[in-house]
Here is the input.
Amino acid sequence: MTPPAPGAPAGRTRVKTQLWRAVVAFRVAALAYAGALTLRGRDDFAHPDAALVALAAMVGWTALMTAANSRDRGRVWPVVVADHAVCIGLTLASAAIQGRDQVEAGVPTLTTSWAASPVLGSAVLGGLLGGAAGALAQGAASVVTRGQLTTATAGNVVLLLLAGTVGGYVVRLAVDAERRLAEAVRLEAATRERERLARGIHDGVLQVLALVQRRGAEIGGPAAELARLAGEQEVALRGLITAPPPTGGPGAGPAATGPQPQEIDLRALLAAQRSTAVTVSGPAEPVPLPAPVAAELAAAVRAALDNVARHAGPGARAWVLVEDLGSEVVVSVRDDGAGMPPGRLEQAAAEGRLGVAGSVRGRLADLGGTMAVESAPGEGTEVELRLPRREGGWSG
Amino acid sequence: MVRVMVVDDHPIWREGVARDLTEAGHQVVATAGDGPAAVRIAAAARPEVVLMDLQLAAGSGVGATREILAADPSARVLVLSASGEDADVLAAVKAGATGYLVKSAGRAELVAAVERTARGEAVFSPGLAGLVLGEFRKMAAGTRPDPTAQLTEREVEVLRLVAKGLTARQVADRLVLSHRTVQNHVQNTLRKLQLHNRVELTRYAIEQGLDTGD
Here is the structure.
C-alpha cells in the first residue's frame, strides 16, 4: 500500500470511500424528499417564491457537495464545516420563508432530513465525536428555528444525535477492521513468500548441493573439498528453511506437547550442531527442558564436539544421540577417531590439565548430572551425559 | 540385479540416482516425480525396491509408501530423504518402509542399501535408530502401553549403538553377537513398530465405528 500523498486526508481507505458514497446518496435522496414537501406545501408558505429560490439553492449545493465528496480533496473539514453552515442557514431561513404559523403548526422545515447530510459527513470524517458535534449543531439550528423545544423537535435532535454517533462509531469499527484485514493479508503474503522461497530452495539449490556433495566425494582430490563445502552449505541452508532458529528463546518448542513456558526443546538447540561430520539423532517428539538447563547441556555437547574436532584426528565423524527417558535426559556424543588409552583423563586431571572434559563434567555437575567417558586407542571416544529431571526448581 | 523404482520430485537428482544404480548393474524399471504417479506406475512396473523421497511436489511420500505396499506387499520401500524430516521418516517407517538413508550418503552406500533392502534386510541410519528408540519410549510412557510393542533390553542396546553411528558389524563385535543376530534384532524392532501401528489403526477404526460401515 502506498502512503497517502502529502496534504491528503489521513486514513484514506476503501471503507471511507464507500461511506462517502453513502453520504452522497443520502443527500440526493433527502433532497428529493425535501423538494417534494416544499413543492406540495409552498402555497401555504408566507413567501412561496422564496421557497423555490431556497429549493434551487439546495439543489445547487447538493450538486456541489456531490462533486466535492466524490474526491479526496473534498472530504476535508473545511468542506464539511461549509456544508453545516449552508444547512444551518437554510434551516434558519425556513422560519421567515414558511411563516411563523406554519413553523408553529409543526410543518417540517425546508431542509428537513436534508440537514442530516453534514452530520453524516462529520461522522465519517471525525468518528463518534465528529458525528455528535455535527448533530448538535444541526439540532440547535432546528430548535432555534422552531423558537421552542417541542417534543417533535427534541425527537428530531435525538435522531440526529443517534445518526451522528452510531455512524461515527461504525466508521471507526469499519476502518479498524479494514486495517486489521490489511495487516493479516500482509502477514499471510509474507508467510507465503517465505514458504515459496523454502520450496524453491528445497527443489533446486538443496538438490544440486546434495548432488555436488556425492559426485565430488566420488571424484576425490580437489573435488572432494568442493563436496565438503557443498555439504556444509546444504546442512546450513536446510536448517535455515526448516528448523525454528535456536535463538527462538524460551517456549520455542512446539506447543502440541505443551512444554512449560520457560521450557525449550533440546533437539532444536542441538540441531545447530549438524554438519557433514556430525549426525544428530533423537526422538521425533520434543525433549523439553528448562531453557537455562537446555542451554547448559547444549553448551556441554558443543564442548564435547569441539574436543572431537581437536583431538579425534582428521576426517573423524561424530554422532550425537538424544534420549528422553522421562526421569532423565541422556545425550551421548561418540566419535570414530583416534581414541585414547585408559587412564588418560585421570592422568590429565592429576596433572591439573582438566581441559574440555573437565569443563563438560563441571557443567553437568552444576546441573545435578553426571558425565562418563569411554575410550580405547583406535576405537574412538564416547561421552555420555546424564541429566535427571527434577520436579520444581533447577539450579541451572 | 534388483528392479528399482526411483521416486523424487527433482529430475536432476532422480536421473543421478538412476544412473548410479544402472552403473552398479541394477535395473531402474521406472521413475516418478510425485506420489499419485508413483502409486500408478509401481502397479505396472512391479519394482522390488522403491527408493522414496518423502518431500514430493504432489501427494506425500508417506501416503505413496502405504499405497504401494498395500497393492504389492512383496515390494520394499527404502526412504532416501534429507536429514531433519524426522516426523515424516517415522511415519513412513510405520507405513511399512524398511529402511532410511540420508541423501548425502555416497554412491556405494546407496547401492549397498538397495541390495540389502531387496534381500529383505532393514536399513537403519543412526537417525532412524534414534527415532525408533524415541517412539518405543513414548509408547511405553503412554496412557495404555501395548505389552507387545516393547523392546527387549538387547534390542534397546542394539538400537542405541546403531544410533551412535556403529555399523552392524561393529555392533556385532561390541556385543559379541553374530552379524545375522544383530540384523534380526534391528528388523524385529521395525516389525513391532509396524504391527503396533496396524493395531492402533484398527483400534481407532473400531472406536470410531468405521468397522460397522457395511
